[in-house]
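Slide 14.
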Amino acid sequence: MLGAYIKRFEEIKRIAIELKEKYPEIFDIVLYGSTVRGKEYPRDLDILIIYLGIKKGDEKYYSIPFQLRNRLMDLGYQREELDIKGINISELFDPNFFASLGVLAEGYSLLKEHFLHELLNGESYAMFVYKLPKEWSHNTLNKFLHALKGRDGRSGIIGELKGSYVSRGVVLIPVWNTEKFKKFLELWKVDYEYFLLLKTIRFV
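Slide 15: predicted structure.
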């Protein structure tokens, strides 16, 4: 599913594991951004290397991302396609690191081969809030609703993407299908905004 549109995904995971073996101070190597949100043929690759014991200012803080970038360029990636950063794990909880929530909600561990929210026993969704055009005819509205949730209220694009219809104008979509639902709304020329949500798994 995740690797369907990522160039040489299996080799990327192998390189990440090799880097971890070389540098045990690496806590994880996380893929995030549009790539993990399901964008078809993404133009760039966003990777975050999370350290234990390596802090900003240490030589390895900067050299490890440089090494990973070079390895991926050897696979055929262009420099401008790669956004690779390294941070100490404490920086994830720094309010000045604005990507924290996005990384936790949509990040995929290349070392553990799971989404971070799965490793935290949680689920991650994009909550879409959309507004239908006022000028739509009744016929156009019905066509949209059928495409959205089918005649049974559970199929359509929502069923296809394993989402859920919350209420009028509000839909939850698993984070890895975010880009596909965005594309659907844009095809219908529907205005929207979305928010990332982390949900704990309910235990009975």
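Speaker note: The mean pLDDT is 91.
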